[in-house]
Design brief:
With 748 residues, the protein is mainly beta. Among the domains are: 1-131, Sandwich (lipopolysaccharide transport protein A fold), CATH 2.60.450; 151-240. The chain is built from five helices and 42 strands. The strands form two sheets. It has a 26-stranded antiparallel barrel. Strands 1, 2, 3, 4, 5, 6, 7, 8, 9, 10, 11, 12, 13 and 14 form a 14-stranded antiparallel β-sheet that branches. The longest helix is centred in the N-terminal third of the chain and has 20 residues, at 2-21. Mean pLDDT is 81; it is low at 1-52, 60-73 and 319-325.
């Protein structure tokens, strides 16, 4: 009862003092957790009944530095809650003890004891101090803080920034305003825990929230063990883009030697940024790169990339056939752009160039890169008017396998196309395909060509179950080659018959309530008269119309299965589960002239399959099966993928093609991602050539993921023609809050 008596006496004295001072601009005191203004003070007897918190609400001082309310420009009110409270009228101060909470305009101070100077808005707190302000928490044992200026000091304190999970600790922390801190003998990290997985310790740290932590005399610690020293460093304390070094990568290759990759990321503007690359390859040379990205008005977005490697050593594996001493300089240029221009025109650029195939072989990341034989650069300008489409483009090809002087370039080409357009309310449709092209090359024939293919078709549906589509087309080609003019007109006629048979079934399984099965047969007859073309120039396939000397029937059968699922709100979603298409052609002229029995009027049977049993499992297949001789399968391409909700994913691609179908291939590619060893995530990839009975490439990637850091280990073993297999090991250590380097060649 002694504490109750003392508290009651203090409460009575406080109320008497308030009554003597008057109600104007003085604090109102309340008991039992209620808020009472100056006109309705609680009675002394009521205040002495329980030991509940005392609540004081008071308008802030009128000093110029006081915090103001954003709504009316007035000073924000202060709320003080405590178990024990004493007011001093001489200096307008409050001394509060026991679970003290001081609040003003979103700032909350908690402590065991607080001395609050109302006139100056200074607070002195001690004992389990906690200061929370807009996503930032400061904690410690002793705090001096001004609620108006946001400035203060704390001893043996910690600062936690929720955005970015940034932790800052030190013997003395000075808070300068709302977003700046200065720390002596401190540390910072993005890891949780009393002993974080990693941290930086420093003699001095300047922190600007939304900017950087700049530190001097810095040690990098793994747990509590210092492992690396630097006299100065800057660490980003924000989630938005910020300029700075990216986490480097290190490795070793039996072909390139020791590898070190460094990158600097630069924010140019809110819609532009750039990355500068510097790579050291001990057996090759020095790599330098620049990547620039932009997002402009009218959806004009793009990126440009340049990378150059200066040869400094003598590595036979990297020498060109005609070089004997030095490693050649390698460079690569790429520019990609998409956007709108005035007048509803659109501009597209897809530019890339390199002098030597060696660049792709050395810095490609996947087979599609390091097996490339050419670069293609295209600049295109287009405009649409409903069904009419006008496109002008220039295309430059760099052949990396042979002399580029004989490579045919399209500089430029203009095309005008009309998608099948219905003529009024009639069943007739008109279409147009046209190209005006200038062909050029340093060696060989060049010239100009106008290619036109107008067409007229119709769609008839007798009985609403049969679709009949006749079409007449005219192939027209006009040439200007070596001061001579050539031309050829070839008509084409086709007739298509198609129908669709549908049956629906009610089901209740796997979230599906209805299935629809459709069978869609189609037959097309095509006739093109026999015309002699050998006297025409030969630039591309348009100069030798594929359908010439063609009198053939193509027939196909499509089986399609579609599922419907109904959600709880009654909405329906449709998903195709199965699509199988069988097709074949029959050449009438081949059969008519087959006196010797050696002709083969029937084409291989083509089988196309798309299968999606669930949203996470898919398979696609495309094959051609010969019907003559004993060759059997002519070509086969299969792709399949499966994944689950836990992060496991498997992708398999198989490709086969016999010699009669072109360059013979027979290889498989397998990719596997799994978190089964979590927190270690694994990725495996292999390409295997069955024709040569050898591995083309094997990649194993392991990543250990912690909340605040990751360690990436990548091993690659790649087959090189007429060389020793290239084996490469890369290590990257990623700290949360720092961007990751893309790798050598800017991760080309």
């Amino acid at each position: 009862m002694q504490s109750l008596s003392v508290r009651a006496m203090l409460s009575v004295m406080l109320i008497v003092a308030l009554l003597l001072l008057g109600p104007l601009n003085e604090p109102a005191v309340a008991q039992h957790g209620t808020t009472v203004d100056g006109a309705g003070l609680a009675s002394p007897s009521a205040m002495a009944e329980e030991t509940l918190p005392v609540v004081v609400e008071k308008e802030s001082s009128s000093s110029p530095s006081s915090t103001t309310s954003p709504e009316d420009g007035q000073q924000a009110p202060v709320t003080l809650v405590a178990d024990y409270l004493e007011y001093n009228s001489e200096d307008d101060s409050y001394e509060a003890e026991g679970d003290v909470i001081l609040r003003q305009d979103g700032v909350e101070l908690k402590a065991e004891k607080v001395l609050w100077q109302s006139a100056t808005q200074d607070a002195a707190a001690q004992g389990s101090v906690s200061l929370v302000d807009t996503g930032t928490k400061v904690s410690g044992e002793r705090l001096q803080y001004n609620m108006a200026t946001g400035e203060g000091q704390i001893r043996d304190g910690r600062v936690f920034v929720r955005e970015g999970n940034f932790h800052l600790a030190g013997e003395q922390i000075e808070k300068h305003g709302q977003a700046e801190y200065f720390v002596r003998q401190g540390s910072f990290t993005t890891c949780d825990g009393e002993v974080p997985d990693w941290k930086f310790s420093a003699s001095e740290v300047d922190v600007t929230l939304g900017g950087y932590a700049r530190a001097r005399n810095v040690w990098f610690h793994v747990k509590d063990i210092p492992v690396l020293y630097t006299p100065y460093m800057a660490f980003p304390v924000k989630t938005e883009r910020e300029s700075g070094f990216l986490t480097p990568s290190f490795g070793y290759s039996n072909n390139k030697g020791a590898l070190v990759s460094l990158s600097w990321y630069q924010v140019v503007d809110r819609n532009m940024d750039a990355t500068v690359y510097l790579d050291y390859l001990s057996e090759v040379g020095l790599g330098k790169g620049l990547e620039y990205r932009y997002a402009l008005a009218d959806q004009n977005n793009g990126e440009a990339f340049y990378y150059h490697v200066t040869g400094t050593g003598e590595t036979p594996d990297l020498k060109m056939p005609d070089e004997t001493d030095d490693i050649p300089d390698l460079y690569y240029l790429r520019w990609e752009h998409r956007g709108k221009l005035p007048g509803n025109w659109r501009l597209m650029a897809d530019i890339e160039y390199t002098e030597k195939k060696l660049f792709f072989e050395e810095f490609g990341e996947v087979a599609e890169d390091y097996n490339r034989e050419k670069t293609v650069s295209t600049l295109m300008l287009s405009r649409n008017w409903q069904k009419l489409n006008l496109v002008g483009h220039a295309r430059y090809i760099k052949d990396l396998e042979t002399d580029n002087d004989a490579t045919l370039q399209r500089l430029p080409e203009l095309s005008l196309g009309l998608a099948r357009y219905r003529l009024g309310d009639t069943p007739f449709y008109a279409g147009l395909e046209s190209y005006a092209t200038r062909f050029s090359r340093d060696e060989g024939e060049d010239g100009e060509r106008l290619y036109l293919k107008p067409s007229l078709s119709a769609v008839f549906t007798p009985g609403s179950w049969l679709e009949i589509v006749p079409q007449i087309s005219l192939y027209e080609r006009l040439y200007n080659v070596d001061d001579s003019d050539d031309e050829m007109f070839v008509p084409e006629f086709s007739l298509g018959l198609a129908t669709r048979l549908v049956k629906s079934f009610d089901v209740d399984m796997w979230g599906i309530d209805r299935l629809q099965h459709s069978v869609e047969p189609k037959v097309t007859y095509t006739y093109t008269p026999d015309e002699f073309q050998d006297e025409l120039p030969l630039f591309d396939l348009h100069d030798r119309i594929e359908l010439l000397n063609r009198n053939a029937v193509t027939y196909a059968l499509v089986n399609r299965l579609t599922a419907r699922s109904t959600a709880a709100d009654g909405s329906s979603a449709y998903r195709e589960l199965f699509n199988l298409r069988l097709s074949q052609s029959y050449d009438i002229d081949e059969d008519r002239n087959n006196r010797s029995g050696e002709n083969q009027p029937f084409s291989p049977v083509r089988v196309e399959l798309d299968f999606w049993p669930t949203s996470k499992i898919s398979m696609d297949l495309d094959s051609r099966i010969a019907v003559y001789g004993d060759t059997g399968l002519r070509s086969l391409t299969i792709g399949s993928s499966a994944s689950d909700d836990f992060g496991n994913a498997l992708r398999v691609n198989y490709s086969y093609r016999d010699e009669d179908s072109g360059a013979a291939t027979d290889f498989i590619r397998v990719e596997l991602d799994t978190p089964v060893l979590k927190p270690v995530y694994a990725r495996f990839e292999e390409r295997y050539d069955f024709r040569e009975s050898r591995e083309l490439e094997k990649i194993l990637g392991l990543e250990y993921r912690s909340k605040c850091w990751s360690l990436l280990l990548t091993y690659r073993d790649r087959f090189r023609e007429n060389q020793e297999n290239e084996q490469e090991l890369m290590v990257t250590f990623v700290l949360a809050g720092l961007g990751q380097d893309k790798g050598f060649g800017g991760s080309f």
